[in-house]
Amino acid sequence: MNKSVKPVVSKLLGSVLLAACGTGAMAQPQAGPSTTGVEFRNTITGEIMNLDEGKPGGRDTEAVKVFKQTGENKYLSDKSCLRNGENLYLTSCSGCHGHLAEGKVGPGLNDNYWTYPANTTDVGLFSTIWGGANGMMGPHNEDLNPDEALQVITWIRHLYTGPKQDAVWLNDEQKKAYKPYKEGEHFSKDEKGQCKPLE
Ligand code: HEC
Q1: Is residue 133 part of a domain?
Q2: Cα distances (Å, whole numbers) of residue 169 to 66, 84, 109, 154
Q3: Signal sequence span per UniProt (predicted)?
Q4: What is the 104 CA–ligand 1 centroid distance (Å)?
C-alpha cells in the first residue's frame, strides 16, 4: 500500500508547498550556516565565526565553496595560487613572521612546532588568519577575503621545511610529491591554474 500512496502524498505535499511558499521559500531551510559543512571557530575563544563579515569578494569561487563544505584546500601546490599567495603573504604576514615564515616577532610557520595544533589543518590555519590569536596576531579578515586567505595558506604550506610525515595538511600522495620552496624560486604572472593574477 505504501508504494502507491507515497508518491501521491509527496507530490501533493510538493505542490501545496510550492503554491504556498514558492521555490525560494522552499529552499530556505537549506540556506544559511547549516549548509556549511565546516565550522570555523576562533582559535582563542572557540566562538563560531561568520565568514560573510570582513573584506568583500572571494566568497563564490569554487575553491572557497569546496573548502567550506569539506575543509579541503584545492589550491595546494597550484602555481598560479602560490604566486598570489606569496604576494599576499609578503604584504600581510612576513613583517611579523619573516620572509620565509622562519619567525620574527611572530612564531615560525615553516616548521612542525605549532602553538595551536589546530593550525596543522587548513581549517585551523584559516581560522587563525580570519579571527586572529593572541596579542599582535590580530584578525586578518579585513585585509584578506576568504579566497585570498586560502591563497596565503597555500603559500605558507609551500614554505614548510619540517619533516614530511608531520605535514598533516597533505594526503599521502601530496606528501610524496611535496617540494618545499627554494630560495630564488619564482612564479610568474603567466602561471596557469585556478587563481587569476591579483589586481
Ligand atoms: C603584527 C604582527 C603580526 C602579523 C602582521 C601577523 N602575525 Fe601571525 N602572529 C603574530 C604573533 C605575535 C603570534 C603569536 C600569537 C599567539 O601565540 O597567540 C602570531 C601567531 C600566528 C599563528 C599561530 C602559529 C602557531 O604556532 O600556532 C599563525 C598561523 C599566524 N600567526 C599566521 C599569520 C598570517 C597567515 C598572517 C598574515 C595574514 C599573520 N600571522 C600576520 C604576529 C603577527
Answers
A1: yes
A2: 15, 20, 13, 10
A3: 1-27
A4: 10
Q: From ligand 1's centre to the CA of 128, what distance in Å?
A: 8
Residue 138 lies in a domain: yes
Count of domains observed in the chain: 1
Query: DSSP assignment, residue 41?
Result: B
Which residue positions form the known binding site?
93, 96-97
Kindly report, residue by residue over 58-104, the tens digit of the pLDDT. Answer: 999 999 999 999 999 999 999 999 999 999 999 999 999 999 999 99
Ligand 1, CB within 6 Å, residue ranges: 92-93, 95-97, 105-107, 109, 114-116, 119, 125, 128-129, 133-137, 140, 152, 156
State which residues form the domain around 144.
29-177
Question: What CATH code is carried by the domain that includes residue 49?
Answer: 1.10.760.10
Full-model pTM:
0.85
